[in-house]
Amino acid sequence: MLLGTLLSLAVAVVGTAVPNGQTLTLNGIAYYVSGIPVSVLRGHNASVFASIATEGMDLVPLTVLSPTSNTSLDSLLSDFMRRDDVFQPSFLRAVYFSKSAKVDATAPKSDLAVLESYGNSLVLSDSKVQTTVSNSTLAILTTQLPNGPYFVSKNTGGVFRAYRLYPDDNLAFIQGAISDENGGFLPLPGVTENAMTKDVAVPSRLYYEPTPEHPLAGLRLGVKDIFHVQGLKTSGGSRSYYYLYGTQNVTAPSIQKLLDLGAVFIGKTGTVQFANGDRPTADWVDFHCPFNPRGEGYQSPSGSSSGSGAAIAAYDWLDLAVGSDTGGSMRSPAAVQGIYGNRPSTGAITLDHVLPLSPALDTTGIFARNASLWAHAIQNWYPNMRKNHTSYPRHLLLAGPGWDGQGITPEANRSLSTFVRGVEAFLGSRRTMVDVSQHWRDTNSPTTPSLEEMLYLTYATLTSVDQYNHLATPLFADYKAAHRGRQPFINPGPLARWEWGQANGGNASYEVALRNMTTFRSWWETSGYGQSDAASCSKSLFMSVYSAGTTDYRNQYYDAPGAPPLGFSTGRIAVLGGVPEVVVPVGESPYNSTISLQTEYLPVSVALQMARGCDYVLAELIAGLEEHGVLKPVKTGTRLYL
Ligand SMILES: *[C@@H]1O[C@H](CO)[C@@H](O)[C@H](O)[C@H]1NC(C)=O
Ligand SMILES: *[C@@H]1O[C@H](CO)[C@@H](O)[C@H](O)[C@H]1NC(C)=O
Ligand SMILES: *[C@@H]1O[C@H](CO)[C@@H](O)[C@H](O)[C@H]1NC(C)=O
Ligand SMILES: *[C@@H]1O[C@H](CO)[C@@H](O)[C@H](O)[C@H]1NC(C)=O
Ligand SMILES: *[C@@H]1O[C@H](CO)[C@@H](O)[C@H](O)[C@H]1NC(C)=O
Ligand SMILES: *[C@@H]1O[C@H](CO)[C@@H](O)[C@H](O)[C@H]1NC(C)=O
Ligand SMILES: *[C@@H]1O[C@H](CO)[C@@H](O)[C@H](O)[C@H]1NC(C)=O
Ligand SMILES: *[C@@H]1O[C@H](CO)[C@@H](O)[C@H](O)[C@H]1NC(C)=O
Ligand SMILES: *[C@@H]1O[C@H](CO)[C@@H](O)[C@H](O)[C@H]1NC(C)=O
Ligand SMILES: *[C@@H]1O[C@H](CO)[C@@H](O)[C@H](O)[C@H]1NC(C)=O
């Protein structure tokens, strides 16, 4: 012990300071400048920056530019302003023309005039470009950089990426992250002032251009904090888990695939503890529940992918967020936040290095604010999808409550009716109302137990026993070993579920639950509404109302959590059938807020489902509905379309 202390002291004494980057403000906008240079500017000296540097500051904003012969500098800069929220004209005070730049040789004055109109007073360039720019200063970047805003150190010539800092006012993130420029990530060390929240840093969008190999290039990505990411700790919504296991050494392959496709990871988002079902606010003991931005801002974000859903609904500086769905953890947040979010066919992509709820049922999906982006991401992400369809499903089936307009507002009913008519026109087929439980009775012998009876305990048993075996047992053992035999704190919800699973048969019941699930799944695929089709992949498009815009205030008191969710409902079909389902926003419903004392609006959302393996055609259909105006992109903030 003493030796250990001495050794660590010795390390501290000989250790040198490690730069953590710094935060600064440019023209009122907060930036983070990482401590890791991505290139070095050589051949100049610090005095060239004298006219633009801030007294006593080493960092100077710089834009790397490479106009091509067919884009004028003027239109290139307009494009920067339109596409990027990190870039601003203050970065143009110093400009570096990179090697490939084609500054208009016949009219160098005009390019200079454009730059000057943006406030430029220093042009750096390598020798080749200098011939066309009479008063540029000779300098060379040791590593070529993509166009965009950077910060350069006057003293060392080190060039750093520019990150804009955004406050996480909705508490959607657990932690912001930046690239370590070496395949891994670092926790964002920069924080500005905010109430309880952290800042999140986003790099310039100009660094990235989509290509066939990188179709998601530059799309900013948040990831639910149950996926391991190299260089960051994983919380799973548990402080005990976060501190016990420390920094993770691997990135979950499902997330790595998104990074390989070009997505830009910017941080970990909040999750219900271990992806269970905590409700705000009393159940969320270890962390505070993220804020749903819709309505007056005090509605539950649902869960368990609460932070991922809230972040997409609240922040236009974020494009995509990954979550997971075992029993509704993607679909419910998508529904109540009025965004696009799916659970895929089970097994669509590996869930290695992801905290498990139930490996038999766990899936991972994506949230986005519009159908085309959501479909683009899904279609590039999952490896196991049938892509050979030649048509869309011919049967449009409507199931579950809500379609008859009972118990919902006239506005919600109108949104649902308009949507169904749009889908009918798109598919060229009329709706059929179906009753799944009745269909089960019709296609089974009279002595077969009802669906409600067979599946009453199935989901509860699979999840509570699986997570007890695969997560709770090793966590308790590891924690005990590290903390003098203590048991870690667990939120009341997951703890009650694990206890319920052990008190209700444990492994023995699990085997029965698995058999019941298999019975349901094979019925759904052969005699139910999940049959496949050679031409359209899925014989039917199966739709249910997922949310009609009813309130779920976050300041409600409930009874203490007990058993896991029991019973059978339409939302369980995708879970137990292993089939793909996506929730989409179709409208808004008004309510008189007991908090704001004003009329507010909440999203109305529908779930669309197809046969197992048909994720690709489902995504294509959703994108097609948006192209035809049946679905619409949504905005961030309180309202979907305003
Ligand atoms: C730095 O560069 C400026 C302008 O290029 C030049 O006038 C000055 O002599 C240089 N200073 C040093 C120390 O090299
Ligand atoms: C610019 O021109 C080149 C060839 O002249 C062409 O390959 C490229 O696509 C053009 N780029 C744009 C943005 O038009
Ligand atoms: C560049 O040179 C021209 C002519 O020599 C001069 O008028 C102009 O002010 C210079 N621009 C800068 C940014 O130094
Ligand atoms: C990461 O690797 C280090 C060194 O091998 C190890 O001590 C640590 O436990 C690993 N962390 C995790 C979370 O596996
Ligand atoms: C969808 O979202 C992406 C990224 O947020 C955006 O670039 C694109 O323009 C949006 N598309 C539509 C149709 O709104
Ligand atoms: C719901 O809307 C449909 C179509 O507009 C209408 O026929 C039906 O009466 C409405 N139902 C209720 C309960 O308002
Ligand atoms: C399995 O199904 C039977 C009826 O067929 C039912 O009695 C039992 O409760 C179910 N058990 C589980 C764990 O799903
Ligand atoms: C239950 O099953 C798991 C494996 O799925 C096993 O590790 C565990 O020991 C079993 N528990 C009991 C009490 O048999
Ligand atoms: C598509 O592939 C499936 C099997 O993977 C096959 O059954 C089906 O006939 C194919 N459909 C078409 C239109 O080729
Ligand atoms: C809101 O309250 C007003 C006045 O009590 C009532 O007329 C109206 O129907 C209510 N609106 C909703 C959506 O409940």
UniProtKB/TrEMBL annotation:
Which region is the signal sequence?
Answer: 1-17
* Residue stretches making up the Scytalone dehydratase-like protein Arp1 N-terminal domain: 51-166
Instruction: Please state every residue range assigned to the domain named Amidase.
Output: 211-391
Q: Does the keyword Signal apply?
A: yes
| Keyword terms | Signal
The record's InterPro entries line, in alphabetical order, gives: Amidase_dom, Arp1_N, AS_sf
Name of this chain's protein: Amidase signature domain-containing protein
Q: Supply the source organism for this entry.
A: Aspergillus avenaceus
